[in-house]
Structures are given as C-alpha cells and as structure tokens.
Amino acid sequence: MKIPILWVSVSALATFAAPALAQDHSQMDHAKMGHDMATMSAATADNPAEGSGTSRLPGNEGAMHGLHLPVAKDWMVMAHGYVWGVATDQSGPRGDDKTYVQSMAMLTAERQFDGGRVQFKSMLSAEPLMANRGYPNLFATGETAGGEPLVDRQHPHDLFMELAARIDVDIAQDASLFLYGGPVGEPALGPSAFMHRGSAKLNPEAPITHHWFDSSHITYGVATAGVSTRQFQLEGSVFTGREPDEDRWDIEKPRFDSWSVRATFNPSPEWALQVSHGFLKQPEFTIHPDENEHRTTASAHYANGKGLTAMAAFSAKNRDPGSTLTAYLLEANWDIDDHHTVFGRIENVKNDELFPDHDDPLHEVPLRVSKVQAGYAYRLPLTGPLNLALGGTVSAYAKPNALDAAYGNNPMGFTLFAKLALGH
Questions:
Q1: What is the pLDDT of residue 28?
Q2: Domains of the chain as residue ranges with CATH
Q3: What is the DSSP string of 320-335?
Q4: Quick check: pTM over 0.70?
Q5: Measuring CA to CA, which of 105, 360, 381, 396 is 20 to 30 A from 421?
Q6: Are strands 222-229 and 412-422 parallel, antiparallel or unpaired?
Q7: 419 contacts 204 by C-beta, under 8 angstroms
Q8: What is the DSSP letter of 389?
Q9: Distance of CA 127 to the CA centre of its chain
C-alpha cells in the first residue's frame, strides 16, 4: 500500500504548509503573485482558463488557485485537491445507500522560458480504496465490476488520473503551438471533465451522462498537438480508445488506436464554446467488445465573473455496429455571496445499457431518461487556501412507464456532503 501513503503524504504536506504559505503570500510583491497565478493557468480575465487536459474554460473562471510551493528558482509548483465525504440514499427497487469518500490531489509544475512555457501535470486519487462497484447513482452506466456491467452505479476513479506534460512555443504575438501528452492524460474530445468545471464544483455526483461527454478524461496513452490564440484553439489527438479496466492501481498499456479533433472559441471572458469529434476503438471492451464508437460533442460554458458559472452541452455517440445514442446536459453553480451557493443539473440521455441481462426483454433497448438535481452548500474558509463546504442535493427522475417495474414510480436521490478543498 505504498502508493496510497504517497497520496496521503502529498495531501498532508499541503495541509500543514497552508498557514505558512499563506503568510508568505501576504509578504510577497502583489504584482509578482498575480503574475505567478496567471502563469500557472495561463488565464486572466482576457485569456481563457485551462480546464482538464488541454480543454479551455471562460477567462472569467480565473486561475486555478491552490497552494504555491517555492521549491526551485524559475519554477512555479502548485498543489490542489480535495477530500469529499458523501452520504447518499437512492430510493426505489434499484436504489441503494452508501457513505463514501471521493478524493483528488493535483501537483503541477510550470516554468516560462523565452518564447514559451513547459508544464508537468500530475493528478492522483485514493478512490481505488473504494470497492470497484463505486457508489449508487440511479440511471448511470459504464465500466464493470467483477466482470459485470455497472448499472445504477458510478465507478471509482483510478489512482493515476493524469501524468502528462505540455510545452507551448510562441509563433506570433498571442499565438502558440503546443504539444501535450503522457502515459495518462485526456485527449481533445468533449468539454472539460465534470470535476474541473466551475458549474459542477460542488455537485457530489458524477453526471449520468458522464460516458457521453467526458469518459475519456482518464486515458492511458495520449498525444495532442494544437495551435492556440486568445480566442481560438484547434487541436488533434491520438490516444487509447479503451476505457480503464478494473485494476485501478496500475498504468495500463498505451494503444494509440483512436483519434479526435476539437475546436474551441472564446469570444469574450464570459464564454467558451467547443465542438469535437472522435473515433474510439472498442471503448467499452468488456461490455461491447466488437463495437467502436464515433462521438460528437458540443458545449457552451459561461462565467460572469461574479459567482455564476454554467454549461450547456450535447453529445451523440454512434456505435459501429449499433445505434446512435444522444445526451443533453445543463448545469450551473451560483456563489450567491462569500458563504452561500446553490447549484443544479438537468440531464437527458438515451441509454441501452440499463438491462445487461441478455434474457431481459429490455436488453439493449434504447430508453430515454431524465434527471433533475438541485443542491445547496454553505462554504467556510479555513486557513490559507483551505476551505470547507457543507451541503446536500435532491434528485428526481423522468422515465418511460416500461421502467416502473425496475425503478418504481417515482425514484428519488438524496445526498449530504462535506468537501474539504485545497484551493478552488
């Protein structure tokens, strides 16, 4: 168990160093600190913010804040992460209840040089300590546990969520070429992953549309090249199409058998618009071993710079052979003031994996379901970059009558959570 101990050590370092670093920051030259913050994320209000992988967010989402570690000259090193305790109760015949912990730790190092910059990015999670069946999440599907498809569950994340590097080289004023890649990363496909979006930062549940929009955010083997300006980014990736297997502690074999392209437009600090398309070779190898997938996504992110962030998105995945399954997502987060936040999510998805038993009459029958979720959180700043959020959510569903026998007439979902975060 040496690897979990490493993750805990990184988190502990960040926690105990917070007061000291907060004091150091108060003594720093404010202009330099602002420059360092912009350097880490390549974002100001006039420039796009960085999401997961190479994705972009509105400039008004701002720099990713965390614990800045003065470890070497000319390098900016930042730690960021969270530990999220959640208790959930999902009703109906397929419902379940569980208390569990989600976690993520990020360590990023960046250095600017004459004509560009270089970044080293790592992201780890202790969620493999959770059972492979993950946590209850009605109408969610994707991946397996014990060789069986996960249905009405959200799988835990792998230990290694990202181990990658990026280099940007200036080619003109406000324009650069970049290369990104590594053994674990995210290809240029879809919007920023849900845990990196401001519109979902306090929602404790993964979207039930996760495997339509951002299931590739943990990919074993990624190489991306692109060109970037303040308003436009065009990029392409080669990567491994197969989703992670059940061994969540290791680094899997890269295959580089899939590809994607993505175009992003940031017309103003308030907006980030993206459209992408990709070919994924056997993404759900255990469940659909003979099926490849063509996936198309489009999304619009909004941030007003005054506490409101939102995203609207569409995705279509076309199995080959198989049918085309579409999904829609709308989510928002509003920090009303320094303490109070309300957030919500509306999803609609066409899913043919709700009945994996081949003898079931609804096996591989596409069924369209909707989820409406609302939540509230009370935020408490602690010390330095540490903060705590306490809250809860309630969820309701709309579904065809054919699902009443399996799910009941009116299934509901309830959660309570406490999120301890280093930065935001």
A1: 35
A2: 2-422 (2.40.160.10)
A3: ESS-EEEEEEEEEEEE
A4: yes
A5: 396
A6: unpaired
A7: yes
A8: E
A9: 14
